[in-house]
Amino acid sequence: MRERALASDLGYRITESLTTEVGPRLAGSEADARAVKWAEAKFKELGFDKVWTEPVTFPKWERRSERAEVLGAHRQPLALTALGGSPAGQVEAEVVRFADLAALEAAPAGSLAGKIAFVDYRMERARDGAGYGPGGRVRSRGPSAAIRAGASAFLMRSAGTDSHRNPHTGITRFDDGLTPIPSAALAAPDADQLARLSARGPIKVSLALDCGWDGEATSYNVIGEIRGKSKPEEVVIIGGHLDSWDLGTGAIDDGAGVGLTMAAAKLIGQTRLRPARSVRVIAFANEEQGLHGGKAYALKHAKDVAKHQIGAESDFGAGRIYAYSSSAPDYAQAADKQIAEALAPLGIEHTPGKGGPGPDISPFAAGGLAWARLAQDGSDYFDYHHTPDDTLDKIDPKALAQNVAAYAVFAYLAASAEGDFGSRAKQVTPPEE
C-alpha cells in the first residue's frame, strides 16, 4: 500500500479537481456551498462505503473591495488586504509605526487618537512554522491594542515569509467592549515602503475597506467512511478543512489536506485485508474563521470520543512529511512504534513527545481524543499562506504522494491496532458552537 501510494497521483488529482472546479472557498459563500457538493460527489466517486454531512452554522464575513494609498508629496498606491472580521470603513490619517506588537500594546490610551497604527513585525521562516505564532498574534491582538490607544485604523506587515507583493489575509478578533476599526495587512514590499516613508517624516495614508459581517451561514462537515471489518463502530479520523480564504484557490491551505486524506483512505479501501476499524475522512467546514467545523464535530460526537481511536489532520501545505509523533499512552506504545517503523522508509523520523493535534482536531483532543502529528516541511508554506499565490502550481506531486503514503500507513495501522490506542472521555465542558 505504501509503494502504491508513492506511485499514484490520486491525491494530486483530487486536489486539482477541487481547486480547479470550485476555486476559492470563503466560508459561507456560494463557492463554499459548491465545495460541499463537490466533496460529497468525490467521496461517492471514490467508492467510500458511507458519505454524509453534518451542519455547521457560523457568522458570515464578506470581502467586497479594498484599497489604500500614501497621500501628499509621495503619493502612491499600497498593496494590502482586509483582515477577516474587519469592518468596512474609510480613513485618512497619519501613520504611526511600531516595531512589534509589544510596542503597540505599550502605547498609552488615547495616544493614537485620529491616527493609523502600523505594526511592522517581520515573521521568521521555520520548517515547523514556529514563526507563525508571533506573526499571527500581531493579526489577532493588534487591532484591539490599536483601539485601546485610540487609533482609527490598523495596518500590519503581513504574517508571511515572502518578499512578493502579495498581502496575506487571515482572521482577526476584537475584544469585547471595543468598537472595531478597519484592519488590513500590507504586502511585505509595501510594508518596507511605508516604513521608509515614515522614517522621512510624518506620512498620511488613505484606507478604504468594503467588507464586514453579514448575518449567519450554514455549511457542512462532509464525511466519508471506509468501513472496518470487525469493529466498524470504532473509527480513526483523518482529514483537512474544505474552506479557504478568497484570494487564492486554497491549494496548500487546505485543498491538499482534503485531497491527500481522501486518497489515503481510498487506498485503504482497496486493500485485500480491511482493517478492523473504520477510517473516517472529514472535510471540515470553516476552519479559517475559528475552527467552526472542528468544534461542531467535537460537540456532536463528544459522547462517542472513546469510539474514536485517534485523529490526525493535514493542514500545513503539501511539503514532505519528516516527523511522526502522537499522544498515544504507555499501553499503546507497541502500536505507536509499529506505525513509526512503517513510516521510516518514507524518510519520516519518530519524534515522541513533540508537536500537538491539528487545528480542527484540537477541540476534540481537549475532550480526550488521542492525536497524531505527521509533520510536513513548511519551510516555504508561509510564502503563499492566505495570499493570491496559494495555487495548485505550488504543490509538488511527488511530495504530495509521500503524504498520501504516510497517511495511508498511519490510518491503516491505527485502525488495525490491537486494543485501544488511547482516546479517553474526559470530564470537560464540550466546546461551544
Structural features, described:
Homodimer. The monomeric form is inactive while the homodimer is active. One of its GO terms (biological process) is proteolysis. It holds the Pfam family Peptidase_M28. There is one protein chain. This protein is an alpha/beta fold and 433 residues long. The protein is built from twelve helices and 14 strands. It has helices at 2-7, 10-21, 30-45, 101-105, 132-148, 188-199, 251-270, 292-300, 333-343, 362-365, 381-384, 397-416, and strands at residues 50-70, 76-78, 80-82, 89-98, 116-119, 153-157, 183-186, 204-226, 231-241, 277-284, 308-313, 321-326, 349-350, 372-376. Strands 1, 2, 3, 4, 5, 6, 7, 8, 9, 10 and 11 form an eleven-stranded mixed sheet that branches. It has a three-stranded mixed sheet with strand order 13-12-14, covered by helices on one side. Strand 9, helix 7 (251-270) and strand 10 (277-284) form a beta-alpha-beta unit. Helix 7 crosses helix 12 and helix 9 runs antiparallel to helix 12 (397-416).
Rg is 22 Å
The number of helical segments is 12
- Roughly what fraction of the amino acids lie in strands? 25-35%
Structural class label: alpha/beta
Shape: elongated
The major beta sheet can be summarized as: 11 strands, mixed
Which H/E pattern describes the elements? HHHEEEEHEHEEHEEHEHEEHEHEHH
Assign a percent range to the helix content. 25-40%
How many E-type strands?
Answer: 14
Query: What is the mean pLDDT?
Result: 96
Give the termini distance in whole angstroms: 38 Å
Which spans have pLDDT < 50 for at least 5 consecutive residues? 427-433
